[in-house]
Fold:
Amino acid sequence: MAFYTKTGFGPDCSLGYLARRIHQIGQSLIEPVFVAEGLSGTQWSALMSMMAGRAATCADLARDLSHDKGATTRLVDAMEQNGWVTRSRASDDRRVLNLELTPDGEAVAIRCRDRIIEYWNTLLTGWDRTEIETLIELMQKLRTTLDDALTEGRRA
Structure:
């Protein structure tokens, strides 16, 4: 049985709208952390993606951030100019650019991460641990559902 109906559908129950608004509001609240460190939220996401082992190449990073290759190249250019990443050609395939965090890149990512953890913990003061864990589990489940749909080519 379908969950959504024409009469019951609106922004307050739309998963897409709610996810977008939560992301927009959350980004605007934590942006001062990035500004204080001289980077953008997207740059921090890229550094964290690399630090978590999710991206070792420009192509990996583009996929993980859902960026096109041109935008990712510009992003990596800026991070390299700031001394946060290095890139080198793979020895077995010259088309592949390997990325590596520099000590400065790792340090700035960790400083931002620690301040963001502190801020989120402040925001979630009124939530109990079970609520937060349930929300994370449900968001992970939704991410998997959407990733599967994308992989299978099930677009609207």
Summary: The chain has one domain: 11-123.
